[in-house]
Amino acid sequence: MQQSAVPELAHTHARPIHWLATATALAGVVALSSLVQPGSATAAQPTATGSTAPAPAATPPGTAGVTFPLSCGTGTEKTVVARKATGDLDGDGRPETAAVVHCDSAMGTPPDGVYVLTRAADGHTPRVVATLVAPKERLTVTDLAIHAGTVTATLLGYSSDAVPSCCPDVKTPAAWHWNGKAFLRTTPAGVHSV
Prior knowledge:
By secondary structure, the protein is mainly β. Helices cover 10% and strands 36% of the residues. Strands 7, 8, 9, 10 and 11 form a 5-stranded antiparallel beta sheet that branches. The chain has a 4-stranded antiparallel beta sheet with strand order 3-4-5-6, with no helix packed on it. A hairpin with a 2-residue loop joins strand 7 (140-147) and strand 8. The longest helix is centred in the first third of the chain and has 20 residues, at 16-35. It starts with 15 loop residues before the first helix and ends with a strand.
């Protein structure tokens, strides 16, 4: 090992006064940084004059007044939107809505349909653009969510036609992701009995 040409420095042996001075300096920096804060962030876009204006928020399509592609029988039964979730599914910056819909029935457990809604070309009218789960599949849909461009849900179904509609015995997690042309369904985990 090569010896240093500089004699041993006095501060290489820390004394309590050195620790106290370091702690005091650190406390001063922390206190000063808590007093000096940056301005609050805004999602404003500069206008032609250079000032900023708030960016318009995209409103997801609602479900009111939408005619869903399911038949509720005699015409006296109405559709019920049981759940809905919103998020950008196609990456265009505008949110879509996924809705769980079934017929309003006084008896039994009517099957659910899951539909994706977007705004029509006029920018105001919501319209159904995809059916993720059709009511003819006899499924009940729970835990609907949209995260990172993917619709997720839990599907409750039946292992056979002999299982009564009141008591689904199969639980399947499902996810749908837009691939640019259609929604592709995946099953994130295995099928589970209820």
